[in-house]
Write the structure tokens for this entry.
Amino acid sequence: MKQWGFYFDQSRCLACNACVIACKIWNEEHRGDAGLNPELSWLKSGKYAEPAEYDNLPGSTGAQNYAELRKYDMKENWRRVTTTEYGELPPVVDVLNLSLSCNHCTNPPCAKVCPVRIITKDPDTGIVLVDTPKCVTCGACLRACPWGAPQFYLSKITGFEMSDPLRPKMTKCTLCIDRIKQGLKPACVAACQNRALDAGPIDELKAKYKDWTDNVDNFKQDKDAGPNIIFKKKKLKV
């Protein structure tokens, strides 16, 4: 098995969030609420496909009805970009950006705590996958992951009956395994304007990027989990 993972060049990231948007667009049909109502899919329904259709949505007064539009996009944030500012006054200031999704750990803590054992590693790529329809919404995976990779389309996941169709079930980054099988890079990597992201077998990434490190500021360490991500660290000006 070739274990796949990510490379992130902290010195190149612009915090433009292109990776975040590309992830949501590519995985639109995999979001947790996609199957609740056929109309809640941009791709299948074509609803609000034209700009003029935004102007007279239910409950609107001519302005865009963001509450209505929110129904038609992916709520989960499989990839997330954070920015930390350093310094007090220009020009002695700097920022560190960090783009993270699931790190497809060698020993994923989420899989260890899942009571129904639906989180597994793909035998060919080592990618951590979840059988979402079988999720029991216990939240154990979310609590166990140091990086917040397990995602639910609702922030409040308690209080649902098992038979409730609205019960949120866990979804997560798949490293775009569907794209990988087509010989393509993950959507986030393909969308990165400044080439701050890459993905591939982790051994090949380490050989390609000689200056890699597994430790950068604001990244939580968990050696037991063995996250499969490496970095190029940005040198701060301050």
